[in-house]
Protein 1
Amino acid sequence: MPPDRLAFAIETAHAGGDYALGRFRDLDGLQIESKGHQDLVSDADRQTELLVRAAIAEAFPDDGIVGEEHAPVTGTTGYDWVIDPIDGTANFVRGLPHWGCVIACTYKGLPVIGAIYDPNTGETYSVEKGGGAFLNGRRLQVAHVASLADGSVGVGAAGRADPERVAAIVRAVLLQKGLFFRSASGALMLCYVAAGRLIGYIEDHMHAWDCLAGLLLISEAGGTHLALDPHTALPQGTRVIAGAPEIYPVLQEISDTIVANS
């Protein structure tokens, strides 16, 4: 009998994150490559993903696997495991202790399980569709706020992003008396929305491995996010707008206006 999927995701995120943490403590031994502008990968990313993939293949041999660093594996069950072995590689390779190991499991294209482990803080975010969102076993709830002036909005900006659109998002948030936050780990910023630390998040495009676990966390913590297309989210990624329900419409208006004017 296969293991419980949520317990497996948590255990495997811990194994991957702890392995990566060992590599983080020996940065001089890393082999680092550039995949493009501000898009780095290290041998620690690749080895961590292989560790996670091996665990999945043993526990759920008929499931699919999609990861950032290696080719996808097609499954037959409708379940696909989605892996970002080190979300925040730019931080990781420069010695900044803000990154995590991210594992999601989708069913027919939509997330049903998520585990995000930050080994630098010991924080484990876990979620199962219909079962709530948790941080180290404590149930999460998004912030309840009246306006952008009541908190900070995470703004994603990958190297491939249009700088004019990113600047326009930041300007729109500031004009409404809000603050913006960017940490170079989209997955952890989505966790912070679920935990009520950030009131929302906007990014023009995120890959599935960066966002699916975090978006499920936000939903199960009482938040709102732009609906995912089950046919495209996994292979193509998605635009991300997420936040506390009271200010989600404001965030969507900001994003939609900027997209329409670009």
Protein 2
Amino acid sequence: MSCLKIGAISCLVLVFVIIVGSYWLYRVIASNPAFKKGIEEAKAMAQCTVQLQELHRALERYYAKNGKYPSSLGKLYPDYLEDKKILFCPSDKAHSGESSYIYYPPSPKTPDSAVVLECRHHILIEGQPPQVIRLRKDGRIEGAGYRPPRAPSPAKTR
């Protein structure tokens, strides 16, 4: 048998082993409850982000009509939000109160970088603190792990 045939057969066997091993690994991981919960939570975080964007648009419509922001998120429904479910994070199973989100009512003078809404319902790993999603006044959404920028250190004088 030539070296070319042996090499080709070896490559085919290796490809077969890689495919079978990958499939087995996928099955093992996919059957893990923690993995499934992580996938579900990632989907919920994506939906939460969409809802925060809709809440931002509703807050801007409210402000455009009233010249101020509402004192609570509940005042957005039904005139500025079509669906009351948008007030509740998909990961918040309790649905207590008028909204799942922590609302910091801005004033017209509040800087655009200020946090307006916060969601703290996304727990990716049991026993760990929730992943926080924040909506800023200018509509930017910042996800898990966000840390506010540090103030610059005062210049040292000599």
Protein 3
Amino acid sequence: MSDRQVLVITSLQDTTADDVITELGRRGVPVARVDLADFPCNVTLAARTRSAPDTQSVHVGTLRSASRSIDLGNVRAVYYRRPEPFHFPLMEPEDRRFAVMQANYGFGGVLAALSGCLYVNHPQRIADADVKPAQLAVAADVGFNVPETLITNDPDEARRFAAEVGAIVYKPFRVPLLHSRDNEPLTMYVREANPTDFDESIGLTAHMFQALVDKVADIRVTVIGSHIFAVRIDSDLLDWRADFSVHRYTVIDTPPLLVRAMREYLRRFGLVFGAFDFALSEDGAWSFLECNANGQWAWLEESTGLPMTAALVDLLQRKHVS
């Protein structure tokens, strides 16, 4: 077996990555774990750029921690999960901003430019695919049924949209790390929007409103290389993420037309992994809601027995990759 390493970039608290690392170890695949927050206190980088015989520049060198030495030219795959951001807590604010930017473009740039390895997924591709308007545009173009959507900062347009399409929901484009006044973590779920509540505060930033899908269930389809795992989620919740304790899971098949559309969607964004969310209507129609290029999946394996960790490790080993 090749001794080329798999590099897992994530935080120490990532239990999903723990399962993948355990399976890689069971298969005898060398694996190393690095968190962006480990740099520079616990990780050092020395990377040289050289011109290879084919005139392509490649980075060679090492990442070193207290327990590992990673040869940058010997990485077979990068599993980019959920690293903590760079932080330099002992620096003054201006120095910290400068240091973080240099780390992002230097340390992070090297990790994003390794030669001859598979990224699951590449961090730049994740960033591109995380933009909701781009998701909706590509989803419609590849043939998904996409609910009528309005992106606006005009309250009159929002009221007009609601009058035209009927019941609507509000969706955040992305939720930053928020805390209450008591420093409790907060999040924001999809919620039904009442146009009588619309006021001039809509004009303060961009908002996304979408026609409410009259659904009977949600569907999460996790695409891992050539493997597709579809699970129906029954919960009676508008946003199933609000309460996992009420879920009922059923493993289902994915219609072939939608399989082709998903593969084309991932190809457009340069992804090999994607967690697709659909709303299932009573007539059997699947409506595209979003695709997370770095979505969670381990809880579904635990709940259904689907071999998702094995599929992910197959992908990192470059087995059965479509």
Protein 4
Amino acid sequence: MRTLKFLAFTLTILSYFFTTVVLYPAFLLAPDRVRIVLTRIVSFYSKVMLRILNIQIHASRTTLLDNYLIVSNHLSYIDVLVLSSVYPSCFVTSTDVRDTPFLGHISKLAGCLFVDRKNKNNLRDEIQELRNALQSGLNVTVFPEATSTNGDEVLRFKRPLFESSIATGKAILPLTINYLKISGKKVSLINRDKVCWYGEMDFFPHFFSLLDEKEIEVEIILSEPIMPELMNTIDLALKSQQKVSQYFDSLNRPAMEAL
């Protein structure tokens, strides 16, 4: 099963590269316009990849009435495929991911926005890129925890990127990701690392292990949008985190409690 999945996934990745690489020169000239096309392409390929991995999504709502600054908890690289497949979006990720072999190439060809969380000097230009993307009609997805986690809790949201919502007047859409089952078993302390990718975990060993799983179930829960008027970044970050945490099902539980 792993071999067949790996071959199918590899062919899909190759097809994705050939499809997107031809757009890269145009992306360098007009990034916001090309990102609109890229988000649709990435959404399509995300659906294909999820089908190969047999990841089933339960979403509380699959259509959006406007474009938003989407904020979500972050547990795994799988999150990007899950969210992109349902809500085509331009993702914000770190320069560390950009510089990571394989993941970095995929991120660049997906039209991702990159932020250097260790260097505050570039923050103004990075926020301007987010503003441009939002104003062009794109959904922009941010993981404000600034890292992926083991699922114990939703970490405190970093506030700087919420400035893009204030500057554009675009609403913030809090979104909660919960991994429910892995190969028919509810996610618990025993098996959560099969989907969660965090800390110093190596990507390829984790991914190859993921290929062995028969099925993964994940849910997406949307909260009501938050309008940025008369709010500052501190308030927006806190309120967004509260809404995401409200529906988050902690994975810090023994296997017996998951039954």
